[in-house]
Amino acid sequence: MKLTDLKKFKEKGEKITCLTAYDASFAKLFDTCEVDMILVGDSLGNVIKGDENTLNVTMEDMLYHTRAVAKSVQKSLLIADMPYQSYTNAAQTLENAKRLMDAGAQMVKFEGGAEHEASFKILQANQIPVCGHLGLQPQSVIEMGGYKVQGKDELGAKRILEDAKLLESWGVEAIVLECVPAELARRVSQSIAIPTIGIGAGIDCDGQVLVSYDMLGINTGYLPKFVKNFLSGHDSIESGVKNYIDSVKNQTFPDNTHSY
Ligand code: KIV
Questions:
Q1: pLDDT at residue 222 above 80?
Q2: Of residues 215, 177, 182, the one with CA closest to residue 197
């Protein structure tokens, strides 16, 4: 997938598939299976470093894993997360985003909305493609009081909707919506022309993303309701990945049991 395909997929109603990858081997497999987008997620704090949250992930971690993944990716669109405290002002955001692009990312992602106006605008002015991340923001897990569904009340829902429209107006290319009610995700997706990529956000998002380890049934503890093991009943990782892609493309995943 190319950057310019993002809106085309939304316009033609083809669901976008995305998986996280942190190393060259998994990235090569996902790329060969034709996952549309590969995200070097700061979820590496949990699944690679063994931390309880993503707050200890550094720019050096992200650069190391982005470089490794980039060596294998040929067809998928490669996104890299900006870690905690790496986009606190415009100048710092631009510097760190450039480092991730130099490491091989084709787009950077960071969490938050209107409060990061200067960061969104400086990346737009410097032609660095950005993916937003609204709803549950794991880097704000302490402020949010835990990993909770966001936008359940009128005020919270209005804020997410308004942030999505602002991000679109600031040139953001796609928005991850994490852990929001399916009905709100549907409203957001219908209100903007750029694609929404859901995780725990229901079937009406324009695409879906999962942490690859969760999707393969490898986990160290608590599993959120939106996770499904796609390897179960399949005899190879490749077949499990294709099962995930097919399920997103033919819209059998997520169903109500994975949504809020
Ligand atoms: O870091 C990550 O893996 C993410 C996805 C869960 C969207 O941001």
A1: no
A2: 177
Determine the average pLDDT of the residues in 154-175.
Answer: 98
Tokens representing residue 83 in the block? 């870690």
Distance 46 CA to ligand 1 centre (A): 10
Total-model pTM: 0.97
Name the pLDDT band for 16 (thresholds 50, 70, 90): very high
How far is ligand 1, taken at its centre, from the CA of residue 20, in Å? 7
Identify the three-state secondary structure at position 229. Answer: coil
Note the pLDDT of residue 220.
Answer: 64
Mutation probe of ligand 1 site: the residue of 178, 180, 227 with most atoms within 8 A of C-beta: 178
SS3 of residue 211 by DSSP: coil
**Vertex 197 angle, CA 154 and 246, to 5°:** 130
Asked, as a colleague might, if the bond just before 129 is cis with ω within 30 of 0, I would say no
Give dist(CA 252, CA 206) in Å, integer.
14
Q: Is any ligand 1 atom within 6 A of the Cβ of residue 93?
A: no
Q: What residues contact 228, with CB distance under 8 A and at least 6 apart?
A: 210, 215, 253, 254, 258
Of 62, 134, 199, 211, best ligand 1 pocket probe by most atoms within 8 Å of the beta carbon: 211
In short, whether 211's Cβ falls inside 6 Å of ligand 1 is yes
Distance in Å from the first CA to the final CA of the chain: 29
Instruction: Go through 11-31 and write b for each residue having 16 or more CB atoms within 10 A of its CB, e for each that does not.
Output: eeeebbbbbbbbbbebbbbbb
